[in-house]
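Lecture 7 notes: from sequence to structure.
We start with the chain below.
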Amino acid sequence: MEQLKHRTRPTAWGLVQSVFHTLILLGLTSGLGCTAFQRKMMYYPKVAPSDELEQFAKSKGLMRWVSPDGRNIGWRKPARTQPPLGTALITHGNGCCAVQRFDFANPLRESAGMDVFILEYPGFGDRPGAPSEGAMFAAAEEAFQALPKAAPVYLVGESLGTSVAARLAGDHPEVFGVVMFAPFNSLVDVAQHHLKILPASWLMGDRFESEKYLRRYHGPLAIIVGGRDQVVPAKFGRRLFDGYHGPKRFWMAPLAVHKEVHLQGTAYWEEILAFWSAHEVGGRLSSEFPASDATGIFARRPLR
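Predicted structure tokens for the same chain:
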């Protein structure tokens, strides 16, 4: 999808440092104007005409996912064998659009027998609207309600989308499992890391407080971070992991920069799926699986 339109930026998502330096230069404009400007600088959606998205999706075996009232809300890829063993909802990161996360769909479909659904946010791809924390959470809730519930539901979050997944998990504790690639405990903390001495907590409107959302969720949580991630350094994923009190596993991809964290081989999915499965006891979630720093396959496998 190289031809997708998006604003040029020097880093992957967020541009937190540039956002707030610009705000300072503009005199820290107050009120709604400041919030609107923050959002314009913070979100970098890839957009494309519908026919271009349809063509790319078809080449990857994806189909449109529509809401009950007929609106496009993302993409889907059914399991080869029906009925599926599970349902996976993918919440992608900033700087891309939903159709580009076909690479998540394949292992979940092939290895786990899941129906896969990829949420599109307002203002991304060809979905109307403008991105914001509230708009993304509302779209995620709508998508969750539209999912088939006959099979267990799992959440797969990437980068900024990990906070969307955290919010869904907190609002729907019946979720059977969550995996997060390059997550953070709070976007405010990530911003403060980049801003150094400037008060990020005073400046941010969209805060994405993942640690807070997960307090209401008690199922299995898998976290994968990149050892060379300078956009969301690994310590923020570690903070989220340390603050979570349910069953959990932590992996480090030591050579991965931000955009590579999810680009591992298929073997790590076997560990994640086994971890999720270990907590399914009679259809209920168990917390008996020990919390671990298991580096597992990441310690012995190169990036792919």
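Points to note: Residues 5-10, 12-33, 281-304 have pLDDT under 50 and may be disordered. The first strand starts at residue 63 and ends at 66.
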